[in-house]
Fold this protein.
Amino acid sequence: MTKHAPSRPAAPQRKIPKSFKELTPSNHFRPRTFFRELIWKALLTPRTGHHSKPTFPQLKTGEVAITWIGHASFLIQFTDLNVLVDPNFANWLFLLKRIKRSGLKIEDLPPIDLVLLTHAHFDHFHRPTLRRLPHPKIGVMPWGVGDLAHNLGFERVIELEWWESFSRRNWQVTLTPSKHWGARTLHDHHRGYGGFVLEHQGRKIYHAGDSAYFDGFKEIGDRICPDVALLPIGAYHPESFRHVHMGPDEAMKAFHDLRAKCLVPMHYGSFKLSFEEMDEPPRWLKELAFQQNISDRVHILNEGGGEMHDGNPRRFLRRADAAADFEAVEVGQVHVQDDQVHALLHTDERIGPVFGFDDVPPRGAKHARCRVKRGRVVIDQQDSCRDIGCTRFHRYTHCSACR
């Protein structure tokens, strides 16, 4: 084990919560809203997706295959190393329903050499999944998390601090800082959190874990400069959630700070953890990539779909279909589909124009109805938030009534 100026954040002061809001660092927990938006609506939503029988590629030295299992779970493969990051195959997390199935079944996994666990939250450190893994050899996790990994089948459990590395044979893994929190319950704030950089065969793969945007991404880029960045893009609305999570806009900033060659998004579409629409994060990310002319460097995977990387960002060899291509349309223009045309008639008497029926309008707001209920409008526009009193600008895309 090697140490490179290891560090950890100051331990938070323990205090008794005065209200439900103080149960999370961002002070946004409200039981009634939580139940309605995250539990009840998810319960009424049919589960989608299907398990894919994986066909793992024949790799050459220096090539890496990355398969997105769903949420923050990835299978990373080299010629001689199989790595799982934050594996979670659960259909339920207590009352939280998984909206989209994992991309493959746990029994279809190859033998696992290394498991990386970014922090102890239940959606990232899922003990039933870890218990079912096919004989994982080594588990690497932040400080204070190792006791949770006992009796889960690991031959060896390693705890790291920020910027501390563990090496074996010719691979190395480093725990990097993040802006999040590590407590699994109300009484274990000593547990650590972070991201990981995996270095092997000349490749550097960065998994950010859970994180809000912060200046630490620049430091990671300066020290390591990864080839591929696996970045979270979901669970960012309402605004208070951004104290601990990123949206697509901030993920794009982090991508530039990291100076990575390719971006693979994660942490969206599987569990409803916040109030934005489930399919909004990848749509927004594609729009941002199109505007910044880096669409060839942003790779959105389907669950169970993977890509093979040989070090050249323009030579990602796709093994599974990604999401549908995004077509940017200027404000005021329309996208014609099935010979039907939309007019942009979305207005709100209280807070001005609102583009996008995907979101719930403020109470009492009045929206003009779409003239045509076929086709699709794609809008390249930032406009007012739907929440009264919020000054944040949001990026909306298309009218759900017209899908």
The longest helix spans residues 31-44. Residues 26 and 243 are 6 Å apart (CA to CA). The chain has two domains: 2-7+17-318, 327-403.
